[in-house]
Amino acid sequence: MRKIYIFDTTLRDGEQSPGVNLNVHEKVEIGLQLEKLGIDRIEAGFPAASAGDLESVAAVAQAVRNATIVALARSNEKDIDAAREALKQSQDACLHIFLATSPIHRQHKLRMSKEQVLETAEAAIKYGRRYFDKLEFSLEDAGRTELDFICQVTDMAIRAGATVVNLPDTVGYLSPFEYGNIFKTVKETVPDAYKIQLSAHCHDDLGMATVNALAAIMGGADQVEGTINGIGERAGNTALEEVALALETRSEFFGAKTSLVLNEIARTSRLVSKLTGMVVPGNKAIVGANAFAHESGIHQDGMLKEKTTYEIMTPETIGLKESKLVLGKHSGRHAFREKLIDLGYSLSDEQVNAAFKKFKDLADKKKDVVDEDLRVIVEEKLITTPEVYVLDA
Ligand code: KIV
Ligand code: ZN
Where are the transmembrane segments (predicted)? Predict the structure, then answer.
């Protein structure tokens, strides 16, 4: 099965989420957890951005020994020198240089012709390769770049010495079909493309960051970039936990897997949420609080009979203890009875029916019916129907 390399940019693109600012200790703590998660490449920051970021990248590079540590640089010597300084203690370093290639960026931001883009990028890659064995070059806004120019820049980057070429959908604009096709075309057209790794980097502006990354894999991408919980600029980046679980759960379809330690996912998600202050929405795939929770009676009944009726992956896979059956107005008698048994009550059918009716009345008025509510319902009944046997309440 083909291995997909995972490049985590929680500490760089993820930290670019408005309102997020990680100090050096927090970056190291996340870096060490990413190492436990088995991330192949960790982008620790953008050293030329600030003295603090340079210090953080250096600290992560010193602390994390079992992953490649990556530092970002624009296509100029000053940025590359800052990355060199930050990565000098690293055991396994990679320089990541980028330059925009799309007509919109060439015309309005860079004010460069295609030739100038090619020359500037080539000079930067050659300079970077004097100091780094591993070098990734990103064609910023590749998603809106002419396909023949993407091939031309990729070809130049390989000849200049890039070991990974990244083709980002910087503004989350493409459909999966279009994005996958870029990788397929580059693989088929650029003569030495098979000698290097091609990387996918997607943003979620139209909610397609994960599916686009998967389409890139199908088109031939070797590496996927993203963040934990999908945090990042604007609507965020590809959520790495989603890609990892999609490949794991549908391996027969994708024919590719990551080497992540999947049962570290829940812990990593919680840590990133705590330190960035970015709350994970309840319905977020894989790591949201409701991802393994069931409320409707029909689903709960199915779950109690056979978990695969309503779960395509197990909570244990990502390091959670168990699925949750949440009692609410849609819940049925089966889950209600099981919950009472969990709470230590053993009731006759008649008593369950009476308590269930009270529970439904309450659930109509209250969003979450918690254990304490159930105890009150059962124990009120206990006073009027003393034959209720309380196991250990
Ligand atoms: O989205 C993007 O294009 C980036 C590059 C710097 C890789 O984050
Ligand atoms: Zn990005």
Answer: none
